[in-house]
Amino acid sequence: MLIYGHRGAKGEAPENTLAGFMHAYRHGIRRFEMDIILSQDGVPVVIHDRSLLRTTGSDRAVSSVSALEMSTLDARQNTASWHHATGIPSLDDVVQACPDYRHLQLEVKSDERGRLNRLCNRLVEWIQRENLYERITLTSSNTGFLRSARRLDRRVSLGYVAERRFPSPVRQAKSLDCQYLCCNHRICSAGLVSDARNKGMSVSTWTVNRIHDMLMLEKMGVASVITDYPTSALVYFENRRRLGHQVESLRGPETDTDPEPSLRKSG
Fold it and tell me: Boundaries of each GP-PDE domain copy (predicted)?
């Protein structure tokens, strides 16, 4: 099971901030989901809402503020306990701060058509220039954006973001030539996951904050979960992996039996 930090580490640090991404990165997280919107001056910035109000208290549209000014705002409005102010980063800021990232899901929200086209061009050009085809997936629920990205480059990895069972998310994702189906974990079923996998797609689910739910999704065949608590989830799965290795070493290479008999011999 692969773990993606949702908006960095939304449950552990201010969402979609450099401080949040670096917090998770220092604790071993190398996969992230983040939201991308174009600033006034045409820079892809990392923020979920089209307004600055919820995270900074400033009642302005992202489209009316430069990337530089956004970096100076205090974006911990929803995380008052965080110990220092932290601004809204650009996509480049995050990538520079977390150079060894394994994979990013960049979710593009619906916006005015002209702004979406500009953002699409910027992101695809960046992926091409830096050869990031294996490390970046552009995701969206906006079918127009996904079609535009596919027209620009057949090699770019795409993901369809689905919140509802109807219309069929698998059929929609396949029609858009997506490699990822990114869906609300509440609509997941074994049948949906199997259908997506049979059509060559990886299933990533959001927002999954309980270990019990992660394990259920893992049994269904879900490849990755997007969680507000990535460092806690990583600790759980790493501990499970280590324990599994210990059990296998006790069993030995030629037996699948319970390890308890060998423990009794040694005692």
Answer: 1-237
The rounded distance, in Å, linking the Cα atoms of 158 and 140 is: 8
CA nearest neighbour of 185 among 216, 228, 146? 216
My answer on whether omega of the bond before 253 falls inside 30° of 0, hence cis, is no
Higher pLDDT, 191 or 79: 191
Amino acid at 97: A
pLDDT score, position 195: 98
Q: Which two tokens stand for residue 187?
A: 């609509």
Query: In the prediction, which pLDDT does 249 show?
Result: 62
pTM of the model: 0.91
What is the rounded CA–CA span in Å between residue 100 and residue 90?
A: 17
pLDDT digits (tens, 9 = 90+) for 134-158: 999 999 999 999 999 999 999 999 9
Q: With beta carbons less than 8 A apart as the criterion, state whether 20 and 11 touch.
A: no
Show the domains of the chain with their CATH numbers. Answer: 2-33+103-254 (3.20.20.190)
- Spatial neighbors of 149 by CB under 8 A, at least 6 apart, are 120, 123, 124, 138, 156, 158
Alpha carbon distances (Å) from 5 to 12, 97, 157, 161, 225: 10, 15, 19, 16, 9
Using one digit for the tens of pLDDT, what is the confidence trace for 215-253?
Answer: 999 999 999 999 999 999 999 999 999 998 666 666 665
Rounded distance between C-alpha atoms, residue 225 and residue 4, angstroms: 6
Handedness of CA 109, 112, 115, 117 (dihedral sign): positive
Give 160's strand partners.
140, 181
The identity of residue 25, as a single letter, is Y
Q: At 109, list the tokens.
A: 């929200």
